[in-house]
Amino acid sequence: MLWGSNARETHPIFFHHLLRGVRNGARLYAVDPRRTSSAEWADVWLGLDVGSDIALANAIAREIIHAGLANREFIQRATSDFDAYREKVESYTLEYAEQETGVPAEAIRELAHAFASADRAMICWTLGITEHHNAVDNVLALINLALLTGHVGRYGSGLNPLRGQNNVQGGGDMGALPDRLPGFQYIENDALRAKFDEAWGVPVPAKRGWHLSGMFDAMERGELTAVYVIGENPVQSEADQQRAKRLLLGLDFLVVQDLFLTATGEIADVVLPAAAAWAEAEGTVTNSERRVQRVRKAMDPPGEAREDLWIIYELARRMGSDWGEASAERTWDELRSLSPVHRGMTYPRLEALGGIQWPCWDETHPGELFLHSRLWEDPVPGLRAPFVPVDHDPPVDRLTEDYPIRLTTGRRLDSFNTGVQSSGYTSPMRRGESLDISPEDAELHALADGERVRVVSRRGAIEVPVRIDPSLRPGLTFMTLHFQDDVATNILTIDATDPKSGTAEFKATAIRIEKLASAVPA
Fold it and tell me: CA-CA distances (angstroms) from residue 130 to 142, 162, 370, 457?
């Protein structure tokens, strides 16, 4: 099940593996508001309305339960809170789900039966699930389906959050989260934090920090006045671009460390030129299946660019703390001494085994192939996996007479994020930004392909050419964030955020389309 993911364009290498399974007889169900190039390979495409994922997931669960297809043995032995979950999904009938999602009831029933009856099944998702104001609840709704059917923790079955950028998993592993230390250890747990206090010789703050959206809120309150940005371009990547730039410009001090002089770097007080981690530095990278692999330096960085690790060590030295040699392996060994899930991953073992999946508890452990395989032990060691009941909650940016059209955003195969790393290179596939619109809406608004229009949301307006796209349903439009210097899509999008994850609702903006007085095809 590919849910909220256009993997063919956003994760093309992974999609080749997925297609191999399809060619070997696997059935593919695509759940996506757009009939994407990924959905074209699916046996069934469920084109749901933007932001109705929980209504669909809960209806699938109710159908599975009523059809007697729930994995009762697994539920009883390995999970908790099933009764509360069953009660929650009871009101999500197929008829209600069809009304809320736009997906025919029969298609929902087919997916429910196919998923529950399959010997092996997997749910893969990405930003189509997480870039919503209720992102965590969306993910929990999918996890509930896996627990309901026992499709977790064993070969060919599981939950696969396809990461939005390279080494996002590795960043989380290393503690780049507001409430965790390296190895996903809770910062507010006194016992876990104590060993870091001892190893680092300073007390680690006992209170969780801010996520990215929380940082911008703190800037607005005047509580955050200095920011150090490493490998990020928030001026062009944040949901409400005008607010983000205003707050960053209002800081007392802004430092940017990056490969390129980004739009954020252009307003910084200090810019530190960094090396390309994949070719100009030593270290490790973690992929979506938790596999830690070595990264080896192939060349020296150009000019005055330096490795990220060297820059951080040098900053520490100039601030009065000499950490010694900026060695990637030495830093990694320090991590292993503090993170139990990485303890057995020495550099020689990573080299010899071609990478190791965490958790890897000691230097004899091969790494855990299936993260939740313990759920199949009897009795289950540790805590059972809980069902978490969640409710459908529509997008914050409501459709009205003034803003009757839904805009959703995403990526294309030839470009990446705000275009910093990809726009400097030509591609025969690349075209400029456009407002992709259904043929029905183009006819309704009397728009021609290539005609420039004014797109207006509750936050601002931009001008962009129209592109008629038959893969879109009436009432749904699509844009990317790749060409911010030409078309600032983020002026339109809303910064309504999930209170748990801080993720902004990039996927659901209410807009209207206005013809320009002298509209001429581009």
Answer: 12, 11, 23, 22
